[in-house]
């Protein structure tokens, strides 16, 4: 990567020479703050493009000047766009110019005739303002490096678009970022201008030409405060001068002072307005993004710790570290065999026996959609052969495919590669699920984990809507991925024209069969990934409790959590359906719970029905589960067998949405799904489903435009903010593919929102009116709903 | 020979007989907000590789360190005041509290790797390299003993199938 680093340096130098004088002071800070890191050598990741990000100013966010940059890269090289520097240049010019004039023309008289402290005071305030301005401009806001390929193997296409995590009892969903290839942590958002995911994303400020995020929010806030004070000082002292020189108003000094006062007065109103707005935000512990998208309109903000703590967090917390462009020390730890292995416990041995038995049962390769496998197994009505008494773990995974090799290694369950555990209270299921997961191999592998999760979760959750949502989400993920490279600028728009909004229980998901198909076609191993995801998501259902929480929420109302629904959708024997099906088929389960002692120890969360499902389930059962999933997915398709149908019927009433979304065409499609082509599967799941309860359209105008407190000058720039800024309004599934389209203007955003808004109000009532048992649902105007565990 | 060239940038130097088989990612625990905590859930892939108490100890210790880094106490407040007073020039010569703790964490991870994980064919990657989103644990297999050479990583894809 040294060549890339050289190129990077050259291009940086080019841009450097083109920048305006506003960069000069920033450079000092830049080198000072980033010098240590920037001047050290980095090793670079060969799998990522050269880490040249943006020209100079925001470019610093991803790398350092004057050093080799490598390692985790932020965004790929961007074209140099001079228009981005206009606001920041103007701001700098006004700030520095006006203050200089003030010092030159007004301060001498003031220091002589009033007090000599005045220039000192003004100088201090001005320096403070300038320092914070430069820090806000040049400091990395908290950019996440792109995830490396091995981290997101399974998070493609078939993986859910959203994952839910419980933050202080409130469900927060994490969206998959197709550009950065990871699930965005809470409060993280992707800035389309900078093409980076930023931690604690506040907004992209054109006046500093930088994102405001976790690391530089304090500087931005202090900049606003100090600028307000500085403006007041300049205006006030200028007024004092003028009042004392009323007879000399035509002199140069007076005219300059008056000009300075006019400038100060002109900027005071918007700056003070913005300062007040941010003071409110800080006190409430919200980001601009959250405020404008109305995330917490219901009044429940899981990220607040009280006013005092919020303020101290902004002002007094230690400077957060940067993630991009860090110096990587050479690690000298060597790994070479022989490796120590921990002794196996009795339970583990037993599990292994079971595991091997299951493993030998059916398909070892996951190269095709797992549904395919399920299909083949469904025909097998015989119980599985007795497990071989093999104690030792089999060798390394059969490497028919890259994914499978990484996925299904000998001793472990579907690798965590494929599964993104939903982040919830970790203590909930984890012991419960580890063993069952370990023991399960192949399809049936999923069952125990599902059993566990289903044990925890209420089986009254809405499988159909869940499935629909998850499929959609997958497709959305695929679509997003397809448009990911170009999506940040928004020019790519939708990957395929057939994207229609489909929101599930207040969550916005896009259904994009065509996009999924396209992206599936484009992906080299999408089918495999999907297959893997199926099992892995199941295997990894030992998720922390997101299962129970999201299922809980699902049970109580329309599913809010896209991730869980997606997960369950994809994995054939996902918990809710599995639970009921397992009930029906429980006699078939031969193995006692003895093999899963730890699994049973975890206590299900309150309000969740305890289902005594456990142990090994037959592949037949899993296959049935898969079929059930399909049925659920397609909203109770008639093609399912009777037990499934009964199950489906049992489940459909609780949710208003799934029957709502049922399509005869989907059933028709389901019939054709026997071939189990991933393509077809995708296609069936892609059927455009009517948008499920999305937030009513009144939220959309709000989502389009910034809050009134935001000063007018920022209205325009605010629209240029990242898609998530405007799109978080729950219309992301529409706005996201539109990406830049939504950024083009309010009108553009409204246009994209229009198609969805019509169908939403009717459905929104369903979601909001659903009674909640144990979970209180809070709907934000922006379209995001949060469940609060009661 | 080395099976996965891209791993060079990472912690390990691979001997020819160990190959990267899998990676486990420990995700963040957001149950208490956005403060840095990692889930202590024991991943199934490590069942046969390391004893659970050792693993949990490591993760808990890391959580403690991160909590210490993010603690808002007198030191961070003074640091902020000093930075403001010097127009942030103090950062030219002083290391922030967070960075100090991160160095401590790096040393701790290195020590854990040397003492506990590497002998078991595992390697922990400092989460800071992943943006503190995940703790990556690389699982190595003894290539000599494994029948089929699993593909080590998809990026290299150089392992024989």
From TrEMBL, chain A:
<feature type="compositionally biased region" description="Polar residues">
    <location>
        <begin position="367"/>
        <end position="379"/>
    </location>
</feature>
<feature type="transmembrane region" description="Helical">
    <location>
        <begin position="255"/>
        <end position="277"/>
    </location>
</feature>
<dbReference type="GO" id="GO:0005886">
    <property type="term" value="C:plasma membrane"/>
</dbReference>
<feature type="domain" description="Palmitoyltransferase DHHC">
    <location>
        <begin position="173"/>
        <end position="293"/>
    </location>
</feature>
<feature type="compositionally biased region" description="Polar residues">
    <location>
        <begin position="536"/>
        <end position="574"/>
    </location>
</feature>
<feature type="region of interest" description="Disordered">
    <location>
        <begin position="516"/>
        <end position="613"/>
    </location>
</feature>
<keyword id="KW-0564">Palmitate</keyword>
<dbReference type="Pfam" id="PF01529">
    <property type="entry name" value="DHHC"/>
</dbReference>
<keyword id="KW-0812">Transmembrane</keyword>
<keyword id="KW-0012">Acyltransferase</keyword>
<feature type="compositionally biased region" description="Polar residues">
    <location>
        <begin position="404"/>
        <end position="415"/>
    </location>
</feature>
<keyword id="KW-1133">Transmembrane helix</keyword>
<keyword id="KW-0597">Phosphoprotein</keyword>
<feature type="region of interest" description="Disordered">
    <location>
        <begin position="356"/>
        <end position="504"/>
    </location>
</feature>
<feature type="compositionally biased region" description="Polar residues">
    <location>
        <begin position="424"/>
        <end position="434"/>
    </location>
</feature>
<feature type="transmembrane region" description="Helical">
    <location>
        <begin position="85"/>
        <end position="111"/>
    </location>
</feature>
<feature type="compositionally biased region" description="Polar residues">
    <location>
        <begin position="446"/>
        <end position="464"/>
    </location>
</feature>
<protein>
    <recommendedName>
        <fullName>Palmitoyltransferase</fullName>
        <ecNumber>2.3.1.225</ecNumber>
    </recommendedName>
</protein>
<keyword id="KW-0449">Lipoprotein</keyword>
<dbReference type="InterPro" id="IPR001594">
    <property type="entry name" value="Palmitoyltrfase_DHHC"/>
</dbReference>
<keyword id="KW-0808">Transferase</keyword>
<keyword id="KW-0472">Membrane</keyword>
From TrEMBL, chain B:
<keyword id="KW-0472">Membrane</keyword>
<dbReference type="GO" id="GO:0002178">
    <property type="term" value="C:palmitoyltransferase complex"/>
</dbReference>
<dbReference type="GO" id="GO:0000139">
    <property type="term" value="C:Golgi membrane"/>
</dbReference>
<protein>
    <recommendedName>
        <fullName>Golgin subfamily A member 7/ERF4 domain-containing protein</fullName>
    </recommendedName>
</protein>
<feature type="domain" description="Golgin subfamily A member 7/ERF4">
    <location>
        <begin position="24"/>
        <end position="136"/>
    </location>
</feature>
<dbReference type="InterPro" id="IPR051371">
    <property type="entry name" value="Ras_palmitoyltransferase"/>
</dbReference>
<dbReference type="GO" id="GO:0006612">
    <property type="term" value="P:protein targeting to membrane"/>
</dbReference>
<comment type="similarity">
    <text>Belongs to the ERF4 family.</text>
</comment>
<dbReference type="InterPro" id="IPR019383">
    <property type="entry name" value="Golgin_A_7/ERF4"/>
</dbReference>
<dbReference type="Pfam" id="PF10256">
    <property type="entry name" value="Erf4"/>
</dbReference>
């Amino acid at each position: 990567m040294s060549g890339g680093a050289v190129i990077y340096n050259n291009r940086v130098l080019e841009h450097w020479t083109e920048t305006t004088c506003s960069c000069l002071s920033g450079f000092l800070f830049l080198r000072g703050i980033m010098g240590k890191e920037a001047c050290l050598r980095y090793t670079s990741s060969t799998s990522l493009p050269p880490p040249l990000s943006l020209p100079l100013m925001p470019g610093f966010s991803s790398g350092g000047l004057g050093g080799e940059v490598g390692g985790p890269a932020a965004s790929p090289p961007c074209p140099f766009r001079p228009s981005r520097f206009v606001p920041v240049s103007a701001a700098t010019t006004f700030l520095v110019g006006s203050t200089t004039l003030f010092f030159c023309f007004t301060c001498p008289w003031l220091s002589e005739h009033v007090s000599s402290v005045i220039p000192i005071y003004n100088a201090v305030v001005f320096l403070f303002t300038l320092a914070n301005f430069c820090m806000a401009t040049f400091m990395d806001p908290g950019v996440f490096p792109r995830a490396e390929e091995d981290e997101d193997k399974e998070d493609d296409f078939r993986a859910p678009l959203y994952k839910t995590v419980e933050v202080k009892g409130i469900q927060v969903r994490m969206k998959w970022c197709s550009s950065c290839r990871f699930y965005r942590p809470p409060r993280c958002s992707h800035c389309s201008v900078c093409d980076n995911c930023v931690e604690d994303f506040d907004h992209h400020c054109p006046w500093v030409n930088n994102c405001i995020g976790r690391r530089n929010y304090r500087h931005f806030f202090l900049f606003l405060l100090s600028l307000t004070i500085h403006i007041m000082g300049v205006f006030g002292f200028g007024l004092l001068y003028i009042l004392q020189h009323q007879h000399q108003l035509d002199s140069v000094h007076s005219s300059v002072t008056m000009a300075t006062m006019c400038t100060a007065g002109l900027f005071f109103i918007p700056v003070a307005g913005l300062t007040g707005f941010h003071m409110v935000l800080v006190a409430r512990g919200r980001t601009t993004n959250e405020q404008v998208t109305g995330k917490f309109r219901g009044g429940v903000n899981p990220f607040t710790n009280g006013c005092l703590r919020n303020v101290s967090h902004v002002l007094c917390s230690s400077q957060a570290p940067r993630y991009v462009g860090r110096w990587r020390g050479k690690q000298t730890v060597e790994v070479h065999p022989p490796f120590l292995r921990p002794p196996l416990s009795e339970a583990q041995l037993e599990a292994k026996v079971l595991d091997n038995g299951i493993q030998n049962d059916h398909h070892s390769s996951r190269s095709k959609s797992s549904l395919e496998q399920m299909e083949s197994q469904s025909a097998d009505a015989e119980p599985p052969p007795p497990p071989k008494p093999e104690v030792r773990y089999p060798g390394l995974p059969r490497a028919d495919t890259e994914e499978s090799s990484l996925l299904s290694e000998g001793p472990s369950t579907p690798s965590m590669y494929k599964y993104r555990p939903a982040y919830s209270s970790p203590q909930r299921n984890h012991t419960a699920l580890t063993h069952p997961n370990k023991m399960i191999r192949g399809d049936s592998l999923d069952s125990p984990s599902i059993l566990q999760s289903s044990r925890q979760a209420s089986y009254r959750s809405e499988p159909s809507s869940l499935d629909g949502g998850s499929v959609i989400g997958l497709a959305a993920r695929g679509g997003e991925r397809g448009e990911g490279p170009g999506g940040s600028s928004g020019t790519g728009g939708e990957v395929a024209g057939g994207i229609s909004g489909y929101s599930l229980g207040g969550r916005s998901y896009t259904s994009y069969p065509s996009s999924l198909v396209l992206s599936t076609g484009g992906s080299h191993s999408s089918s495999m990934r999907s297959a893997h995801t199926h099992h892995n998501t199941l295997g990894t259902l030992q998720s922390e409790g997101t299962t129970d929480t999201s299922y809980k929420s699902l049970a109580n109302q329309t599913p809010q959590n896209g991730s869980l629904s997606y997960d369950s959708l994809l994995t054939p024997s996902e918990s809710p359906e599995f639970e009921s099906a397992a009930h029906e088929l429980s006699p078939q389960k031969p193995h006692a719970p003895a093999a899963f002692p730890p699994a049973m120890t975890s206590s299900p969360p309150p309000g969740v029905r305890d289902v005594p499902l456990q142990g090994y389930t037959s592949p037949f059962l899993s296959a049935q589960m898969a079929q059930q999933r399909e049925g659920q997915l397609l909203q109770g398709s008639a093609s399912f067998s009777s037990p499934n149908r009964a199950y489906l019927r049992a489940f459909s009433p609780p949710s208003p949405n799934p029957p709502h979304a049922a399509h005869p065409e989907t059933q028709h499609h389901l019939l054709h799904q026997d071939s189990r082509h991933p393509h077809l599967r995708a296609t069936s799941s892609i059927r455009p489903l009517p948008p499920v309860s999305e937030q009513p359209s009144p939220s959309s105008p709000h989502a389009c435009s910034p809050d009134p407190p935001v000063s007018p000058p920022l209205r325009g720039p605010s629209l240029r903010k990242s898609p998530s800024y405007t799109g978080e309004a729950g219309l992301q599934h529409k706005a996201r593919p539109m990406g830049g389209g939504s950024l083009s203007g309010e009108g553009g955003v409204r246009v994209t929102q229009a198609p969805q808004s019509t169908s939403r109000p009717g459905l929104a009532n369903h979601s909001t009116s659903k009674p909640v048992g144990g979970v209180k649902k809070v709907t934000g105007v922006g379209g995001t709903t949060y469940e609060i565990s009661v | 020979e080395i099976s996965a060239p891209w791993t060079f940038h990472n912690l390990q130097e691979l001997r020819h007989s160990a190959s990267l088989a899998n990676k486990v990612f420990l995700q963040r625990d957001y149950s208490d907000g956005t403060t840095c905590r990692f889930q202590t859930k024991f991943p199934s892939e490590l069942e046969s590789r390391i004893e659970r108490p050792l693993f949990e100890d490591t993760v808990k210790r890391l959580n403690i360190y991160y909590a210490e880094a993010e603690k808002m106490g007198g030191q961070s407040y003074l640091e902020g005041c000093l930075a403001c007073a010097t127009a942030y020039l103090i950062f030219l010569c002083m290391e922030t509290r967070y960075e100090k703790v991160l160095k401590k964490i790096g040393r701790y991870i290195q020590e854990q790797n040397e003492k506990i994980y590497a002998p078991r064919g595992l390697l922990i990657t400092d989460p800071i390299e992943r943006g503190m989103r995940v703790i990556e644990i690389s699982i190595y297999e003894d290539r000599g003993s494994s029948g089929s050479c699993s593909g080590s990583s998809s990026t290299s894809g150089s392992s024989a199938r």
